[in-house]
Amino acid sequence: MTKGEINLSTTEFPRILNRPLDPVWSLGAGAQYTVLKFFSQLLKQRAVVLKNEDVEGVHQIRVAARRTRTALQTLTDIWDEGMARRSARYLAKFADAFGPARDLDVMIIYLEEKLAGQADDRTAAFKWLLERNRAERQKQQPLLVKAIQRFERDGFARDFVGYFSTTPVDLWLLGGPDG
Fold it and tell me: CA-based Rg of the chain, rounded to a whole angstrom?
């Protein structure tokens, strides 16, 4: 690993997540499945954000964090209230770190579209705005990297999956031989 490279943690999820949600499962198992499924989507976006090649990574990491939080808040009575609340707060803070970059990504897309259809008298202004927003977005990238580094250093994924895989139902036991 080179200096500055982030070693993304690998988190093993119960094999049951490879199957579709089954309506015969208990409410607890279904809630755990939902929370973990959304959280796994968040984890997949870390590498996309770090590469900074696709603006969808920032968008999707925020969407997955919001979906995970919403599921935690909606189904909070299934888990220890403190654990669910702390996890939701952590995810909210984590997602907030990506907000300014996402806003700039949206503005850049908008300006690129406007520039493509603009008359010559406004082209210079749109180009200036576009370059200004691109420069601001580049300034955001190190902040995104720091947010992901902090996430990794905190061990949040390991702790989150550890708790929500086993409470209230041990999902590791539900995976079955064929996953």
Answer: 20
User: What string of H, E and C letters represents the secondary structure of the chain?
Assistant: CCCCCCCCCCCCCCHHHHCCCCCCCCHHHHHHHHHHHHHHHHHHHHHHHHHCCCCHHHHHHHHHHHHHHHHHHHCHHHCCHHHHHHHHHHHHHHHHCCHHHHHHHHHHHHHHHHHHCCCHHHHHHHHHHHHHHHHHHHHHHHHHHHHHHHHHHHCHHHHHHHHHCCCCCCHHHCCCCCC
Average pLDDT over residues 27-53: 96
pLDDT, average across residues 38-49: 97
Task: Say if residue 1's pLDDT is above 60.
Answer: no
Please compute the mean of the pLDDT values over residues 125-144 and round it to a whole number.
Answer: 96
Work out how many domains the chain is built from and give that number: 1
Question: Domain of 60?
Answer: 15-97+146-173
- pTM comes to 0.91
